Amino acid sequence: xxxxxxxxxxxxxxxxxxxxxxxxxxxxxxxxxxxxxxxxxxxxxxxxxxxxxxxxxxxxxxxxxxxxxxxxxxxxxxxxxxxxxxxxxxxxxxxxxxxxxxxxxxxxxxxxxxxxxxxxxxxxxxxxxxxxxxxxxxxxxxxxxxxxxxxxxxxxxxxxxxxxxxxxxxxxxxxxxxxxxxxxxxxxxxxxxxxxxxxxxxxxxxxxxxxxxxxxxxxxxxxxxxxxxxxxxxxxxxxxxxx
Length: 243
Ligand code: ADP
Ligand code: MG
Known about the structure:
Layout: E1 17-30, E2 33-46, E3 50-54, H1 61-68, E4 76-81, E5 84-85, H2 91-101, E6 102-106, H3 117-127, H4 132-145, H5 161-173, E7 179-183, H6 191-206, E8 210-215, H7 218-221, E9 226-231, E10 234-240
Parallel strand pairs: 3-8, 3-9, 6-7, 7-8
Antiparallel strand pairs: 1-2, 1-4, 4-5, 9-10
This protein binds adenosine-5'-diphosphate (ADP) and magnesium ion (MG).
The site of magnesium ion (MG) has 2 residues, from helix 1.
């Protein structure tokens, strides 16, 4: 691993800043109990970067991902996504941002069990009101891209964990999102499938996608070019990974 760099990361940032968090705070309230899961996070991620966010369980990684993915809003501080102040957006606008700009991959795959692979993959395009013929064409192309051209009509239950996660990656890609967010995407996979999924992320990065990968495993994080560590709701380090 690299030593700590104290200035901005050195990764090229040709198109601007995709993610910008300034003094980001998130407090959860459960009855009368408050818990501050993010306690003032400053983080900027540029277009085309591949960043891993690491930290022990409970450190605030998923909270950060939910904020960055517009699934939740900050209690205090600012979040700009591609220059846009997310705090100013209403529910409908947030849903639109998620649908058009972001692709999500989760540990639990979150596929719909009754739908075939290609039907799962076309879903973001259904929400995006893309015509049916184009949806199928793009879903098939996305599945071919992740090496599942032979499994188009299989349901999730007929696929291995690694294959299911590749379907989920295809679904994340099908809308051509600017930013791919993955929260412990290899957490439920064996080492072989982990390598398959990480190889896909490597390829996406090589094609210019911005990727934020959350993991608590160093081996997984080392696929990224920059490794940010979180602890107790604060950034602990921000390093360029020389590989
Ligand atoms: P990580 O993903 O790093 O394991 P999380 O972001 O899920 O961490 O959680 C950070 C902290 O916030 C944990 O202590 C967790 O218990 C707490 N937390 C997360 N979500 C909620 C919630 N909806 N309500 C209350 N506390 C929460
Ligand atoms: Mg988590």
